[in-house]
Amino acid sequence: EVQLVESGGTLVQPGRSLRLSCAASGFNFEDAAMHWVRQAPGKGLEYVAGISWNSGSMGYADSVEGRFTISRDNARNSVYLQMDSLRTEDTALYYCAKDEGAVAGFIDFWGQGTLVTVSS
Amino acid sequence: DIQMTQSPPSLSASVGDRVTITCRASQSVANLVHWYQQRPGKVPQLLIFATSTLQRGVPSRFSGSASGTDFTLTISSLQAEDFATYYCQQSYGTPTFGQGTKLEIK
Q1: Nearest CA to CA, how far is B83 from chain A (Å)?
Q2: Residue-wise over A11-37: b if at least 16 C-beta within 10 A, else e?
Q3: Could A61 and B94 be called an inter-chain contact, meaning their C-beta atoms sit closer than 8 Å?
Q4: Mean of the per-residue pLDDT values for chain A?
Q5: What are the pLDDT digits (tens) for B17-36?
Q6: What separation in angstroms does the CA of A10 have from each of A6, A19, A64, A113?
Q7: pLDDT tens profile A26-71
């Protein structure tokens, strides 16, 4: 059974940093691209970042480029999102998501999400 | 980033109706458009990938098609469980989502 368990979400002040983690199980992690997608309260889905199976390719939304960094550790079956210079508009539920393939395509499984609140 | 303009933002319909949701890409995205359903309080679920291929387990009343940079999700006969929010997503470039269409009961 595929499982994605996010952690690290919390209340943080604007300008501070936070690192999200996602622990994966139930599939060949090293074969799949991975993504972070967020959803602000009452709003739609927003793509945040993605990473290919071997970390050879990463992609970011314009809204987080230069502030967020995605990484993965295939030995630990984990993907991470380092979020720096956080803004109030980064407040959202952050989903870890598994791609159907090795490079960015479509998402065939989503975690339950971890909530990040940016507020003073 | 490639923009996906989704319409309508909301739609009221009745059980048994046929409904259509459209996404227009800001440039060519080949056939790399996918559709998701999100029920209230739940995580999104993949419905259709690569324009028209149904994900395993998705009912055949869902279908997808394209004409140029316009992509369409059609539900042929609405069922009660279909009232949800639908999103398109492109993967030709760095992925982006449409703004969503909330399908409500009339």
Answers
A1: 16
A2: ebeeeeebebbbbbeebebeebbbbbb
A3: yes
A4: 97
A5: 999 999 999 999 999 999 99
A6: 12, 10, 18, 12
A7: 999 999 999 999 999 999 999 999 999 999 999 999 999 999 999 9
Tokens 């998501």: give the residue. Answer: A97
- B78's CB contacts (< 8 A; 6+ apart) are B13, B14, B15, B16, B17, B18, B19, B103
Q: Say yes or no: B36 contacts chain A, CB-CB below 8 A.
A: yes
Q: Provide the token pair at B67.
A: 């004409």
Alpha-carbon distance of B73 to B76, in angstroms, equals 10
pLDDT at A36: 98
**What is the separation of C-alpha A6 from the centre of its chain, rounded to a whole number of angstroms?**
9
- Written as one letter, the residue type at A53 is W
